[in-house]
Structures are given as C-alpha cells and as structure tokens.
Amino acid sequence: FVAMLAYSTGLPIGYAAGPTIASLLIAVVLTCAGLAIAVCVHSRWASTVGGAIVGLGVICMHFLGMAAVELPGRIS
Q1: Side-chain-side CA neighbours of residue 56 (13 Å)
Q2: Which long-range contacts (CB under 8 A, 24 or more apart) does 20-25 make?
C-alpha cells in the first residue's frame, strides 16, 4: 500500500482521497479478518479460508488504489 503511494512516475500524480481511504480500510479489515479466521478457528479449512480472505483483501486494495490514481494522461 505504501509502495504504491510512494511510487514516482516522473509525472505529476495524485490520488483521490475517497478511494484511497477505502482501499486502506478494506486492506486492514480483510487482512485482520483473514488472519483471525486462520488463527482462531480450529478447522481443517480455516487456514485456506483465511488465506483466501487475505488474498481478496489484497486484490480489492489494489484495484481501489489504482482507481484512485489521478494523473494527466491515460493508463493503458
């Protein structure tokens, strides 16, 4: 998350506040939920489900973060 915010393209780049904050919150909530399930639930599938939730959090964080990018150009 921090690496994406710190990346320098050589162009003036910014991030929309709403999607950026939503991206951070989703990353924190889904990572905590996934780790809690993997650690606290005593089931054969707990680590798999917890890992899938963490992965989903990373995916959502990435796509929301990329949607927040504001720059003078087109991303293709």
Answers
A1: 12
A2: 20/64, 20/65, 20/68, 22/64, 23/60, 23/61, 23/64, 23/65, 23/68, 24/61
Token reading at 47: 């680590």
Amino acid at 47: S
The helix (H) or strand (E) run that includes residue 30 is helix 17-40
pLDDT tens per residue, range 1-33: 677 677 777 778 888 999 989 999 999 999 999
Q: Which residues, listed in sequence order, are joined to residue 60 by a DSSP beta bridge? A: none
CB burial class (10 A; 0-12, 13-18, 19+) of residue 64?
Answer: buried
Instruction: Report the distance separating Cα 51 and Cα 31, nearest Å.
Output: 9
The pTM of the full predicted model, rounded to 2 decimals, is 0.77
DSSP state of 45: T
